[in-house]
Amino acid sequence: MISYLQAENISKRYGEKLLFEGIDINISQNQKIALIAKNGTGKTTLLNILGGLDTPDSGALSSKRDLKISYLPQDINLDPQKSIIQAVFFQEDEIIQAIRNYNDSLKTADNEVMQKALDLMDSLNAWDYEAKVKQILGQLELFDYDEKIAHLSGGQKKRVALAGTLISNPDLLILDEPTNHLDLSMIEWLEEYLSTSDITLFMVTHDRYFLDRVCTVILELDQGKIFTYQGNYSYFIEKRTERIENLQANITRSQNLMKTEQEWMRRMPKARTHKAKHRVDGFDELKEKANRRIDNSKLELGVASDRLGKKVIDIYNLKKSFDDKCLINDFSYKFARGEKVGIVGKNGSGKTTFLNLLAGEVSQDKGRIDIGETVKIAYYKQDGISFDDDTKPIDVVKKIAESVKLKNGKSFSASGFLQYFLFPPDMQHNFIRKLSGGEKRRLYLCTILMQQPNVLFMDEPTNDLDIMTLQVLEEYLMLTDATVIVVSHDRFFMDKIVDHVFVFDGKGEIRDFPGNYTQYRNSDLYQTETEQAKPKAKIEKAASKKQNVDTEKPKKISFNEKYEFEQLEKELPLLDTKRQNLENELHSGNLSNEDLILKSDQLSKLLSKIEKKEHRWLELSELL
Q1: How far is CA 450 from CA 373, 413, 436, 482, 543, in A?
Q2: 426 and 485 together in one domain
Q3: Which residue spans within 335-454 are E strands per DSSP?
Q4: Is there a single domain that holds both residue 460 and residue 590?
Q5: In angstroms, rounded to a whole number, what is the distance separating the alpha carbons of residues 112 and 542?
Q6: Is there a single domain that holds both residue 432 and residue 483?
Q7: Final residue belonging to a domain, choices 470, 502, 521
């Protein structure tokens, strides 16, 4: 396997804070690697170093000659005066320049200019590349190529930057939180695109389904060191647990040995000290091991919420439009105590507007929203962070409350509560400007939950939070008695939290689906909506075909079909056993990178085969 990029013995420090020290990373062709770490430990810094935007304090980077790297950072910085097509074609290679010239020639009436552009496209065989570009733009729903970047929403800008990164055809693709600000359908498309392509990938993401389905190697950055796991996210969880347990066992053993050594050191005669120097040195080494600390902190948010009466929020015939676009049309619903609702829909379909309406931050065109007298609302917003950089975390939370009441009747001081949010005392008294973006998110989350609401609105709460914080937030939301209404593109998060889903179609209709996101994704409702989104000609063709089927007489199963059905009943269990064996091999940790890629490809083909045969089995079973 060809090595693309190597980082050897690199270290990085910001002021007094050491992010990582003496770490090695090797990225080889066709690998799909994810980096996992807590917020503030240097994930983005490490990506910037690998992407050439920053340099390490020590160590060296080397790469394959003429390696082409494309890097999508978290913070998008596009020229607001450029059009979508200009922003997408940011690379300066020969083919992209030819396509750019061709698109410009279409806006002129000069036949000679157009002919030259056509000839250049032909000579470089750039038509296939242009088709790929337009396919990616279409999948990302970027159709108006001439629209200025200044007129786009945050989500649209993210898609433009993502499109430009993908179509640049890099050898190595580096992505920092690529799923942030994308809607669920876009995330699923990107997941499919990356998992089925031969592209070499190094990324940071908190999307656990994405990690599990795309990545074949997980790197964990923990206490400044890198730990490598040759498998996907499920494998990482299993092996990381084993690593922590083994480390804890070694620390416990060292602590027990140290007690024995301490007793020996105290009893050792001073006159014999020179004869036992090796044992004294060994004692110092043992002491260092015994004093090691596993930073595996976990938040336990048993925070009480104010009593909530029978009436929570009642909505009657709600309607809201912006200009000619109707987002919510004649919607009625009554929220119950402890209910947990997820909201899904494409970008711009009205999800955030709905939360703003419930919070009273925008007014409805028609209808009524009645809020119960005992309701205490807290609203976690996408853009809600507004801390003064020259203040300290402890001062921020003390402005909200000096203490927090817990479910068991006890209370926490503001400082103690911050410690549960992984802010040790020294960090509590540092200025907020020293916090990373994710740490500021965690502090913002702390300020919201510290209000002890009994109704909680959350708009994309998973953005910029690390996986460890997400796991704790999920636990809190599952245990809280508060009513929770959450907008999120994180499928794993939604599957764990919500009781049912509001589906926004962007045309005013809101459908209530009884189940989590994956159940909705596999439902007939989702299939119907997907079919409605297809081009009209395809819908008419499908409808015509269905009508013909409906008019046909019920079909009886033939002898051959019955035999096929019986064979499928024997074959499917065997295929499922084969699937389980392949998955066990992939999770064993004993495979080389080449075998991992081979087995992953085999599993993908096998799952496709099983899906087709199960579909056929269902068709035949309906005829019996």
Answers
A1: 21, 11, 21, 13, 54
A2: yes
A3: 340-345, 366-371, 377-380, 403-405, 411-413
A4: no
A5: 45
A6: yes
A7: 521
pTM listed for this prediction: 0.72
Please check whether residue 596 lies inside any domain of the structure: yes
In one-letter notation, the amino acid at residue 212 is D
Number of H helices, E strands in the chain: 22, 20
Spatial CA neighbour of 464 closest among 385, 394, 358, 541: 385
Total structural domains within the chain? 3
- What are the CA-CA distances from residue 195 to residues 27, 199, 398 (Å)? 17, 9, 46
Same domain, 338 and 462: yes
Are residues 376 and 506 both part of a single domain?
A: yes
Per the structure block, which two tokens stand in for 177?
């939180």
| Strand, coil or helix: 458 | strand
Name every residue whose Cβ is closer than 8 Å to that of residue 103 and which is 6 or more positions away in sequence.
85, 145
| Whether residue 320 sits in one domain with residue 286 | no
Per-10-residue mean pLDDT of the chain, 624 residues long, equals 93 88 95 93 93 94 92 88 84 75 76 83 78 82 87 85 87 93 88 91 94 94 91 90 78 64 59 49 52 49 69 95 92 94 91 95 95 94 88 91 75 82 85 89 90 93 88 86 94 93 93 92 77 47 40 52 73 80 72 70 76 78 72
With 0-12 / 13-18 / 19 or more C-beta atoms within 10 angstroms meaning exposed / middle / buried, residue 141 is middle
Question: Which strand ranges, in their side-by-side order, compose the sheet holding 17-28?
Answer: 17-28, 3-14, 58-63
- 488 and 339 assigned to the same domain: yes
Q: Which domain holds residue 571?
A: 553-621
- In terms of Cα–Cα distance, which of 219, 235, 217 is closest to 227? 219
Among 134, 205, 148, residue whose Cα is nearest residue 175: 205
Same domain assignment for residues 412 and 474: yes
Count CA within 13 A, CB hemisphere, residue 1. 16
Q: H/E/C letters for each residue in 512-549?
A: EECCCHHHHHCCHHHHHHHHHCCCHHHHHHHHHHHHHH
217 falls within a domain: no
3-state secondary structure of 554: coil
Inter-axis angle of helices 111-123 and 127-139, to 10 degrees? 100
- Is 426 a member of any domain? yes
Q: For the chain, state the CA radius of gyration.
A: 29
- Chain centroid to Cα 114, Å, comes to 44
Final residue before a domain boundary, out of 290, 324, 351: 290
Is residue 244 domain-resident?
yes
CB 437 within 8 A of CB 381: no
Beginning with the edge strand found earlier in the chain, give each strand of the sheet holding 32-36 in spatial order: 69-72, 172-176, 200-204, 32-36, 217-222, 225-229
Contacts of residues 553-562 at CB distance under 8 Å and 24 or more positions apart, as own/partner, are 555/623, 556/623, 557/620, 557/623, 557/624, 561/620, 561/623, 562/620, 562/624
